[in-house]
Structures are given as structure tokens and as C-alpha cells.
Design goal:
Number of strands: 2
Largest sheet: 2 strands, antiparallel
Order of helices and strands: HHHHHHHHHEEHHHH
Strand content: under 5%
Distance between the termini: 31 Å
Number of helices: 13
Helix content: 40-55%
Strand order of the largest sheet: 1-2
Structural class: mainly alpha
Number of domains: 2
Amino acid sequence: MSSPERIEGDETSDRYFWKQLMLRPEIFCRFYAFLFTPLCLAHSSWIGSIFPGEPGVHLKQTRLLAAAFKNLPHLRDMPMQAREMFSHRLMPIALLNEFEMEALSLLLGGIDMSQSIHNIIDSRHLSYVKSLFDERTWQIIMVAAPLLRIPSATHSRPVLWAADKDPSHTLKHRGNEILRSVCYGSEPIHAYLALRFPHETERTIPSSTTLEGFILRVIKQWRPEWMKQFCF
């Protein structure tokens, strides 16, 4: 995985700033977000024309813009992981330290990423997304996904993804609804987890809680017999 191009020059000069803005995609996205995020978020119907593409792409872009706008003061502190994701033109499920929360948002949709990825992330990037997890964590994600549920975007009652559902079943037709439900920020996810798993989350997810640790606690509580699938 290659690193973004290094930009040499006087860091205080205007020329250096504009070279950064034009040559480093993560800087460009943040500058763009500074200008357009409020309008994009207020008028989501515009997004499809701004970001044409597959169904759901404009939702991912809105999420990206919101995250970039929120972190605007930290232009030059972007972690290498996020830079590499931009440089590979992946619509990120992660930005800065939101990596686990974004991955968790997929889990909260009950999404088996090996089956339902089409409307969530371009299928060409699936192998890269999987590479962001070690093999053990990916196995845990695949096992735990059916346990979790989210409020439906169109109904007030929760939608439960049954654990015994046919593993070949896809949620492709629910892709956009899931994205609307969980991908507009981590606060709704925190709030939902606090209601669904109060003892696990303690009303929030501590920053020290790993994705793997959280999922294992959920499995232990709701499907303890599944624990034998993992070697400890």
C-alpha cells in the first residue's frame, strides 16, 4: 500500500497550501467539506446530482463530508490509515478514530458483508475492506452480524435480523435504508447501543473498547453457545 505523494516546500507559503489542497485528496475533501457540507446535509436531495453513481454512493459521500467537516481543524494530522484509504479511492467506512464505529454501523444493520456489500461499498473494494481486519476479527464480524439490529428508517419498531436466517440471503434491497439509519454520525449508534445493550455500553462506548471485544461480549450474552467457535 503506497503512501500519498510527499509535498515539499515552505509550509507557511500560500503556494505550499494550495499544492497540498490540490495534490492530497484528504486535504481537498476537507476543504470541499468546509465549503459545501452545510448545504449538502441540509438538502440531501442535491447529493445525487453532486455525486452521481451507484445507489447509496451519495449517502457515503454525505457521511464522508460530515466527518471531514467535523475534523477540519486537524488538516495536517490525518492518520496514515485514512490517507491510504483516500489514496486508493475507497469510499471510507472509516475516518480518523471513527474506524470502529463505522464498522460497527455495518454490523448494526445485520449486514453480512460477504453477501450484501453491493449497496454499501463498491464490490471492487471488498477485499480491501476485509484486509482492514485481521482474520479472527473478520470471522467474529461474520458470526455476530445476525445478532444485532437497528431501528428501521421507515418504521418505529426495530427490525431483527434472525440468527438462523439462510446465510445466502442478502440485504441488498435494504442497503440505502440501513445507511440512512446508521451512517449519519456515531451519536445515534451510541444512543441505540445504550438502549439495546445497556450493560455492554454503559450508556456509551468507551474509546478503549475494541470492536472485537464489544462483539464478543454481545455473543457471550445472547448466544453463549457460539463461543465455542472461537479459540481463546
